[in-house]
Every structure is written in structure tokens, then in C-alpha cells.
Fold:
Amino acid sequence: MVERRPWLTFISHTVLLIGVAIVAFPVYLTFVASTHSAQEIVQAPMPLLPGSRMVQNYLAVLTGSEHGPGARAAVASMMTVSLVSALVISLGKIVISLLSAFAIVYFRFPLRMFCFWAIFITLMLPVEVRIFPTYQVVSDLHLLNSYAGLTIPLIASATATFLFRQFFMTVPDELVEAARVDGAGPMRFFKDVLVPLSGTSIAALFVIQFIYGWNQYLWPLLVTTDESMYPVVIGIKRMISGGDAAQQWNLVMATAMLAMVPPAMVVMLMQKWFIKGLVDSEK
Structure:
């Protein structure tokens, strides 16, 4: 029997509220800054309540109607690039990892474990380590300033392959035998049995990989020089130039708030599946 102690409940809730306030206050301050004019933000002290320019500021950054040191491109276009890149990276990682894990677990071919460890060892070689040869390949293939150049070098994932392999190894052999008796071929077994069983893992990986793709900075910084192909993270950096006094910080903060929306929505909409995929006791 669990004893309820009001004082302990009060302390735990107080600690949680303090933690939420510490995390949420910078986001709130960003939102407040996005609703004021640039002159109001640089005043001391900065206003702590929302202003009257919210609609004007957000429309300005979405359409790129105000140009200057703090606004150079339409944020709607940059968010489209980020969304397409994040979706291609996350879905591409999941599809490739599912197929590679399926081949390693269920097919017997020469050097099977060597192939697995060759994939796994790439965890020690992130994009930052192999950035120059990767850029050279993308440049030689004329993929600069393109969605292919932004996404293809990032869609392979040793981590996802390892996780799917570990899960596939827990699938009972009876399911494989039952599928064979029913006349199901390898791809039918993969599509009708393994993929549905991997639903929660796929959801968890999708959330992680979507945020990973959305927040990419270094690689897009190298392969994009055209403003029409800037993702929103690069766009924020490009908007900040010159001295602090020259920045339109209200527009920069509005762009930052818009950049937070898609990842936050993905996490909220898939929260149940995400948590289940990470803590499911059957895995």
C-alpha cells in the first residue's frame, strides 16, 4: 500500500513547476519579443508582456515582405525546405534501416556479420568526420542546392539498423514458420508481419529522426548557397548579421518561434507512440 503524504506531493509538484518555468521562460521571452517592434525590444528593461505587433511580425517573416539586416528571405519557403528535408531524412532512415536489419537477421549470406559490423562501426564516423569527402561526392554529382544534396548523405542510420536488428531477433521463430506454411514469401512476411510489429519502434525513431533532420545546421550550411534552398535553421543564422543594434530582433524571434512549431507538433501528436516505442516491455 502506497502512503499518500501531502507534504511530499507538494514538494515534488513545486520542483516540477520550477523545472517547467526554467525551461519555458526562454521560450516565453522569445514569443514576447516576437510581438514587439525592434525598438521596444532593445529598451531596458525589455517588456515581459506580449505587444501589439504579433500579426504584423509573423506575416512579415512568413512572406519576406520586410527586408533588411534581420529579414532576407520568406520563412514560409525556408520552413518548406526544412519540412521536406526532415521528412525525407526520417522516412529514408527508417526504410533503409528496416530493410538492412531484415536482410541481416533473416537471410544467410557470406560475410553477413561483417556487413552488420561494417554498418555499426560507422557510428564512430559521423557526418562531421567525413564532411569533406561527402561534400566532394555531392559536388561532383552536381547535387549542391538541391533536396537530394541536403538529404541523401544523411539518410543512412547505423543506430536505427541496430535497433531494428535487435527487435527482429526477438520475433519468435514460430511466426516465420507460420508464414512459410501459409506460402508467404520474404517480402510478404516483412510487409505483413515485421513492419506492423515494429510500429511503436518506427514511431519513436520517426520522432527522433524528424527532429534530427529539422535541426541540421552544418551540412545545409555547406551544400546550400541559394536562399531558396535555405532550411529555417540556416535562415535564422543568415538573418543575424552585423552589430546587435542593426538587427530586427523581433523578426528573428518570430522566425525562431515558427521554427519550433513543427518539431513540437510532431512530438505532441506522436507522444503516446514515442513513449511506448522507448519503454515497451516486449522489446
Q: What stands out?
A: The chain has a mean pLDDT of 84. Residues 75-234+265-279 form a domain with the MetI-like fold fold (CATH 1.10.3720.10). Residues 75-106 form the longest helix (32 residues).
